[in-house]
Write a structure and sequence with these properties.
The protein has 3 helices and no strands. α1 runs antiparallel to α3.
Length: 91
């Protein structure tokens, strides 16, 4: 089976967007309710420590990679489907 650019970018985009969705789901259902029970000062301290811990290269790749791969999927779909961006128009 030949792997072209479009399925590979689609697969990568699905993985990265899924990783971002899992992160948001976990944060909203596990982390936020837990730290929401703290007093204001404890909430701010906990939130700052978690933000410092989560902001790392892997997080940046998953979070911003999902956006960039979404754009790449749209571009390759338009290029393959409608011939936009150069190449041979299959229609």
């Amino acid at each position: 089976m030949e792997m072209t650019t479009s399925p590979l970018t689609l697969f990568t985009a699905i993985l990265l967007i899924g990783g971002t969705a899992v992160l948001c789901f976990t944060w909203g259902n596990a982390v936020a309710p837990g730290i929401g029970q703290l007093d204001d000062l404890g909430y701010l301290r906990a939130f700052r420590k978690m933000n410092r811990g989560i902001e790392n290269p892997l997080f940046l790749v998953v979070f911003f990679g999902a956006f960039l791969m979404g754009i790449a999927v749209m571009y390759t779909h338009l290029k393959l489907e409608f011939g936009i961006g150069g190449g041979i128009n299959p229609l």
